[in-house]
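User: quick one, sequence for these tokens?
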């Protein structure tokens, strides 16, 4: 996308606003598919939690992707987007048996990550195929909050509890058709991923009726010029060979599954915000913008880096700014960042705003959540309207009891 396209969108739809470039999503999907083109059966299930707008889900469906979901609501969004239930996998954590049963009734692939629910579900529904999420006890990921495969993680069934799994499967007669793992996000070292994969292969040998092995995802994407990223091509070459060899050992052609989220949509997203005020203090120049961590929480939550460019003055002289939001609390997007000279009313663009950005927005400070726009084949399409005051109060219940209190006081 060009700066003039982004400026035109900000002018038409206001700010703040999220913008997604469909061509980037498509190219990332094709890149990942190509890296594993020598696998006979490949299934890429887009992680809905990264960006759950129905327009994005429809785009993924058109590309041939399935969906990785973590709540019944995400499943319902996928179905509303026209995705076949057979192309959806449900990988929740800590949800009730009732929610899992409700999703199963929709025809979706179930993935269970704890012994208690596995036994209860298997006892009641022994004929429903189930995938098992394994915790490989591998610490991987770019931040402790997004590392989910280590020994202290709440996710998955420990590899040391395989005998317990086998006992439950034998006692219930349930059908285990898949094995799954997810070690974390922002994984750079493919050797760590390959090491965890060997653990998954060893686990798979215990189950004789598998249809697929799901390796999760967590590939690192670049957040700035010159940043490092997961070498998908090298990883594809190495895991493809190992996977194909395993299929021969297993005696069956299995499906290789992944659940990319950030890899597909992160770099496709832009977050546009207007500069409300440029504030000079004794030590810092602040650029205060018309948004806050209620709209983009990742820098405050994960210390994540988002490149920020002044698209109103992209070729201006660079100066140092601390970019801050309007939330009544520490609300910092960037500290002492080199950005082209900023003036009030300029539009700033945050890059890598496609994954875990809008999906983590809130109404904190009673602010409205922003609009979303899809840039597709050279045109801007509004895919979510900006919230209004009516949206803010529509589910609140007005009580008359306070009139009685006021009358009693008076």
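Assistant:
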């Amino acid at each position: 996308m060009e700066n003039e396209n982004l400026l035109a969108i900000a002018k038409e739809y206001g700010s703040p606003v999220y913008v997604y470039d469909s061509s980037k999503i498509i190219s990332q999907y094709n890149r990942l598919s190509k890296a594993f083109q020598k696998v006979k059966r490949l299934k890429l299930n887009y992680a809905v939690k990264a960006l759950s707008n129905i327009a994005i889900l429809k785009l993924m469906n058109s590309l041939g992707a399935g969906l990785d979901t973590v709540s019944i609501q995400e499943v319902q969004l996928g179905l509303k987007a026209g995705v076949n239930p057979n192309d959806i996998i449900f990988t929740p954590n800590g949800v009730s048996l009732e929610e899992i049963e409700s999703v199963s009734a929709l025809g979706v692939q179930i993935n269970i990550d704890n012994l208690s629910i596995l036994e209860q579900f298997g006892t009641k529904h022994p004929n429903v195929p189930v995938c098992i999420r394994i915790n490989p006890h591998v610490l991987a990921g770019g931040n402790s909050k997004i590392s989910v495969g280590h020994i202290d993680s709440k996710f998955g069934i420990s590899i040391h509890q395989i005998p317990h799994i086998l006992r439950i499967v034998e006692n219930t007669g349930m059908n285990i058709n898949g094995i799954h793992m997810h070690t974390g996000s922002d994984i750079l070292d493919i050797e760590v991923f390959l090491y965890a994969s060997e653990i998954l292969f060893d686990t798979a040998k215990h189950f004789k009726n598998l249809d697929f092995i799901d390796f999760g995802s967590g590939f690192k994407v670049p957040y700035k010029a010159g940043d490092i990223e997961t070498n998908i091509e090298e990883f594809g070459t190495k895991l493809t060979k190992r996977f194909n060899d395993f299929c021969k050992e297993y005696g069956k052609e299995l499906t290789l599954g992944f659940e990319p989220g950030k890899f597909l949509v992160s770099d496709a997203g832009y977050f546009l915000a207007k500069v409300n005020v440029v504030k000079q203090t004794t030590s810092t120049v602040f650029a205060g913008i018309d948004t806050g961590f209620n709209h983009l929480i990742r820098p405050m939550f994960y210390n994540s880096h988002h490149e920020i460019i002044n698209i109103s003055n992209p070729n201006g002289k660079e100066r140092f700014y601390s970019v801050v939001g309007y939330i009544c609390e520490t609300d910092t997007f960037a500290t002492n960042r080199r950005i082209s000279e900023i003036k009030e009313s300029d539009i700033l663009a945050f890059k890598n705003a496609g994954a875990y950005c809008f999906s983590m927005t809130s109404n904190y400070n009673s602010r409205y959540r922003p609009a979303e726009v899809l840039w597709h084949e050279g045109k801007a399409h509004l895919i979510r309207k900006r919230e209004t005051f009516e949206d803010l109060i529509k589910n609140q219940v007005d009580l008359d009891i306070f009139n009685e209190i006021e009358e009693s006081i008076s």
